[in-house]
Design a protein that fits this description.
Layout: H1 2-23, H2 31-35, E1 41-48, H3 54-62, E2 67-70, E3 79-84, E4 87-94, H4 100-132, H5 134-149, H6 158-171, H7 175-190, H8 201-212, H9 219-227, H10 237-259, H11 266-287, H12 291-319, H13 321-326, H14 331-365, H15 368-382, H16 387-390, H17 393-398, H18 403-417, H19 422-432, H20 437-447, H21 456-478
Antiparallel strand pairs: 1-4, 2-3, 3-4
Helix pairs in contact: 1-14, 4-7, 4-12, 4-14, 5-6, 6-7, 7-8, 7-20, 8-10, 8-21, 10-19, 10-21, 14-20, 18-19, 19-21
């Protein structure tokens, strides 16, 4: 219910703002909201050539392509004059994201089709894990911890192995693998859900822990920083780990208090201490490496772990091939069956993803998001928050809505303020330490057709806020 109202609010407020802007003269056209593409110039006016200043008319007349570009400084948007059919079209600024119709198209081509491919492959692997018995063995090993965190999940339930693989993939920054494992976990937890239209406690706990995004190797962030020629691309690694870890603990505590989880359990304490020890040990190892060694380690660890998971699944299936024979199937046929299930899941979640991304497209292109962002930055600056922090806030604000949009702001902040500036580093930590909340809810609950998400959205947004505050303190501490 909350998500539905929020979605409607974004849509209706954006449309109202677009219409008001058009009729008050703040916008010349709304075509870019519908048909424009990201980074395209925005048409702000159209005039007859005689209405333009003499120096612009002369410049257009002399230009071979009848086009004039004014770029007086690097802080303001370029203004371009294009003469065609007796009029001059004036463009200024660039579009923040794709318009409504290109978003519909790109959701299919750039998001859903690759996602379906990932789902098909990893769901095929998961089917092998189930039939070979590997999932059952993994669940038995981890049941003592998971039954404390998820009291409603029976011991040795298959969802435990799926959740473990999802957390592990997130931990290593393997987004392409984390989503299929997570969707399979939600599907498995749905079999235990007495009310199929309402999110269960276990599903809420899992999704909030997933969204907190505990990350050990922020490979994509390191890659972007390296592409922008950072002096040490991996220097944000430790702040990212600390911020995401605190966010995960916050998610566990917030949901756990509401669900009355027993925090005094010895099993939980031991598991938490083990995770902390593993993180500290890895950080100590990475810290003693030189720059080349750090880059090599962070670039290869995640990839090696993914290859290891695939290799283990196939080898374990081969060793236990008799289990496939007993079920009158083969390893290959089992993989195909799982891949087919992944394909069906991808088709199921498509409308949910499309609905959310189109609303976000309107929200950004209407200009409403930018106004809210600027006002918040102004308020924070009046409260004494430094400009270095407020300049990075658009990344934090957009992260729950759009990973691609916040990534664009992050790269822009690196280029504008410097990749090794405080703002550039803080933007990287913001990008790494939280999840795309609305997209995750749409995908994960959409895959099992949950209508009532209960307190999931409010909890995830609160965790996002915790991550933002933590990121600021951690960045200030380190840089």
């Amino acid at each position: 219910m909350v998500l539905s109202r929020f979605w409607l609010t974004i849509f209706i407020s954006s449309i109202a703002f677009i219409v008001v802007s058009l009729f008050t003269g703040n916008s010349y056209t709304i075509d870019f909201v519908l048909n424009g593409k990201k980074d395209d110039p925005i048409l702000i006016s159209e005039k007859y050539i005689d209405q333009l200043p003499a120096f612009i008319k002369d410049s257009i007349a002399k230009a071979p392509d009848k086009t004039m570009l004014i770029n007086r400084d690097t802080l303001n948007a370029d203004t371009t004059y294009v003469y065609s059919s007796k009029t001059v079209k004036i463009y200024s600024g660039i579009q923040k994201s794709d318009g409504l119709l290109p978003t519909c198209k790109n959701t299919v081509l750039d998001l859903i089709i690759p996602l379906i491919a990932y789902l098909a492959f990893f769901c095929g692997l998961m089917e092998l894990l189930i039939v070979s018995g590997a999932a059952e063995k993994l669940a038995k090993k981890l049941s003592p911890v998971f039954v404390k965190v998820f009291p409603s999940v029976p011991k040795n339930h298959e969802s435990i192995s799926y959740m473990t693989l999802n957390f592990a993939a997130n931990f290593l920054g393997l987004d392409s693998a984390a989503t299929p494992f997570g969707l399979k976990a939600m599907e498995s937890l749905q079999t235990l859900n007495p009310d199929k239209d309402k999110a269960s406690d276990a599903q809420i706990m899992f999704l909030c822990l997933h969204a907190a995004g505990l990350t050990l190797i922020p490979t994509s962030i390191i890659g972007y920083r390296a592409a922008e020629n950072a002096a040490n691309p991996a220097d944000v690694m430790l702040p990212c780990i600390i911020t995401s870890f605190i966010g995960t603990i916050a998610a566990f505590l917030i949901v756990g208090i509401r669900q009355k989880v027993n925090f005094k359990s010895a099993t939980l304490v031991v598991a938490l201490m083990t995770i902390i020890a593993a993180i500290v040990g890895l950080l100590m190892y990475v810290n003693q490496l030189d720059l080349v060694g750090k880059n090599f380690f962070t670039a290869n660890l995640s990839g090696l772990m993914l290859v290891a998971i695939i290799g283990f699944t196939l080898v374990f299936s081969l060793v236990n091939e008799k289990k496939f024979t007993q079920k009158e199937t083969t390893v290959f046929d089992t993989f195909v069956i799982g891949a087919n299930n992944g394909l069906k899941t991808g088709i199921t979640i498509f409308p949910y993803v499309l609905a959310m991304l189109v609303a976000i497209s309107l929200f950004r292109n209407s200009g409403l998001f930018e106004i809210i962002s600027n006002w918040l930055s102004f308020v924070f600056s009046q409260l004494g928050v430094s400009k270095e922090i407020t300049d990075a806030l658009p990344v934090a604000m957009l992260r729950p809505f759009s990973s691609g949009g916040s990534r664009g702001f992050m790269i822009d902040s690196m280029r504008t303020f410097g990749v090794d500036s405080f703002t550039g580093r803080l933007s990287s930590i913001f990008q790494c330490s939280a999840e795309t909340t609305f997209y995750v809810i749409a995908v994960y609950f959409g895959s099992i057709k949950i209508k009532n998400t209960r307190y999931t959205l409010s909890t995830m947004l609160l965790v996002d806020l915790v991550c933002v505050i933590t990121a600021i303190f951690v960045a200030t501490w380190f840089f």
